[in-house]
């Protein structure tokens, strides 16, 4: 989901102004001061204790990359409290500052792991009337 801001503290997710799908702009090109992409990843036992590359990229409705991206590695250990074979839920936040949208329309953040698409967060940017 999208949020105005978010953070993970001690494995818990805290967010402000979340779960929206429309950004209102006064004029274009538009700049959004702060925008957070909020995810909860399910990590299976086979993916624990290894580096998992994650990429989040912004595209317009024509599929053009806008050069806004976040990449990194995630490593999840095996908590002793989990039963054997159980998955872990891991909250993740990627914060973006000063995101520019050239025109009104549809946009999407695409989340990938090793070039495989894991999910999409579609939204619209529209001119406020």
Describe the overall structure.
This protein is mainly beta. It has one domain: Sandwich (Immunoglobulin-like), CATH 2.60.40. The chain has strands at 2-9, 12-18, 22-25, 30-43, 52-60, 65-74, 88-101, 105-113, 116-127. The strands form two sheets. It has a five-stranded mixed sheet, with no helix packed on it. β5 and β6 (65-74) form a beta hairpin. It is elongated, with a radius of gyration of 16 Å. The mean pLDDT is 93.
What keywords describe this structure?
5-stranded mixed sheet, 67% strand, 129 residues, elongated, 0% helix, Immunoglobulin-like, 4-stranded antiparallel sheet
Describe the structure concisely for a colleague.
The protein has 129 residues and is mostly beta strands. It has no helices and 9 strands.
Listing every helix as H and every strand as E from the N terminus to the C terminus, the arrangement reads EEEEEEEEE
- What is the CATH class designation? Mainly Beta
Reported for the largest beta sheet, the result is: 5 strands, mixed
Low-confidence stretches: none
Structural class determined from secondary elements = mainly beta
Write down the Rg. 16 Å
- Helicity level, as a percent range? under 10%
Strand portion, in percent?
over 45%
